[in-house]
Specification:
Elements (H helix, E strand, L loop, with lengths): L3 H14 L5 E2 H10 L5 H13 L3 E6 L2 E6 L1 H10 L5 H22 L1 E7 L5 E9 L2 E10 L2 H26 L1
Antiparallel strand pairs: 1-3, 2-3, 4-5, 5-6
Helix pairs in contact: 1-3, 1-4
């Protein structure tokens, strides 16, 4: 029998291995906690340890943390994947079959804003397809409110803006 904490780590690795894009930490939490595989504290500690040990990478943008499986994590999973019950693997596979498109669409538009050393703010806007950036734009703004507004509008209009830029550059 597998130690429950190790099982949670393997479930996280398995979930990240099933997609070719970053997944928000919230998506992982929702899936695992909804099914009561463990409690919040065990999951938080497990994800922290996976990150510290180099099995996953975490990057925070705007208000979301995105998780990505590393090569070391993928290699480790290949050795221990059989310790995840078939039922749990089926739950994950079914979940991704049902929601993969929705999750991928949410991951494809990423925004962040931050303050520069000169006191201005930067709106950092990215559109991704799978795990590749299609476009990344950084816009300096005089106020945090304006940077936030640009980030919000990017989420709504990134496709149109990207098409407009390509059309005008080509």
């Amino acid at each position: 029998m597998t130690d429950p904490k190790i099982l949670i780590k393997l479930i996280v690795l398995y979930m990240l291995d099933k997609v070719d894009f970053s997944v928000t930490k919230a998506e992982i939490y929702d899936f695992i906690l909804e099914r009561e595989y463990c409690d919040y504290f065990v999951l938080t500690e497990s994800i922290y340890e996976l990150t510290e040990d180099g099995f996953i990478e975490a990057s925070t943008t705007h208000s979301s943390t995105y998780l990505t499986l590393t090569d070391e994590g993928r290699s480790t999973l290949s050795f221990f994947q059989n310790r995840i019950s078939e039922g749990i693997r089926n739950d994950i596979n079914t979940y991704y079959e049902k929601y993969k498109g929705d999750i991928a669409n949410r991951m494809s538009v990423i925004t962040n804003h931050y303050r520069t050393s000169t006191g201005d703010y930067v709106a950092d806007l990215t559109a991704r397809e799978k795990s590749e950036d299609l476009i990344n734009i950084k816009i300096n703004m005089p106020t945090e409110d304006s940077a936030i507004a640009i980030c919000d509008h990017w989420k709504e209009r990134s496709s149109d803006i990207y098409s407009f830029i390509l059309e005008n550059l080509l």
